[in-house]
Structure prediction request, 310 residues.
Amino acid sequence: MSVVVYLGDDEETRDWVDRLRRLLPGRDVRPLDDPGAPEDVAYAVVWAPPAGAIARFPRLRAVVSVGAGIDHVLRDPELPRHIPILRTTGPEMVQRLREYVALHVLAHHRQLAVTDANQARGVWQQIVTPPAQRRRVGVMGLGHIGAQCALTVAALGFDVAGWARSKKALAGIETFAGPEALRPFLARTEILVCLLPLTSETKGILNAGTLGSLPAGSALINAGRGGHVVEADLLAALDSGHLSGATLDVFQTEPLPDRHPFWAHPKIRVTPHIASYIDPGTGAGVVAENILRYEAEGRLPDMADAVRGY
Ligand code: GLV
Prediction:
């Protein structure tokens, strides 16, 4: 039985191969481009695999996404849809996202970008913002990661609500569910945090209509996927003054192309898909543990669903 690995970058792939070899003794762990006998391959541990690569393995038991999202696997048109997909999260990944969301919610709340711009011009302007209790934050996506981020921001004192496809209960957080609850959720949100998975239902969900439903002066933090944002609509909402700013970690094309208007936009902070990161040092352990547990139990508690799309 063998395990193939693909992370895009050759050096990263080699690093993961070495680590998984140590963690999965007795398994033949190899890079995807040197898979050995295709019928021996039982697991493909991947980030954004090339189209058609997975379909070459007739006895694959599962695809392991090196990430919480599975959209990068599902976009392969040749992916056999019946193969289970395991996602990779773990406490470190959740912690990184909690930090990212807290950092940027606070930055928008305290208007850090304005203070930075003032400093650059030598301007002394004391900006007084309301306390967090009077700032309404809305988190879209209340899976394990979204829920933990919402609770983190609530613990800082913010007035937090969450929106998800189905109803979720979260202590101290008002929750909204389904398409009909989206507008009321947005209407009460001043800092919107998107942590949704990218599916056919959520593609383009941050558009002129939804951004327009936020109160004037609101801010957006997107650590979901670039495909959630209709880029022209976001730029228009920022340029008209309806939105005060946006922090974007994910983009339709990554790396963000050189001359993309987001780079130099005065109201946009770009971060290079680092809101979270699966560190091979600990991530390979999570992946190996998930593979062994999946082998033993035939499923994992938080399995992705290819039909649902996350
Ligand atoms: C990162 O974007 C992930 O899917 O984990």
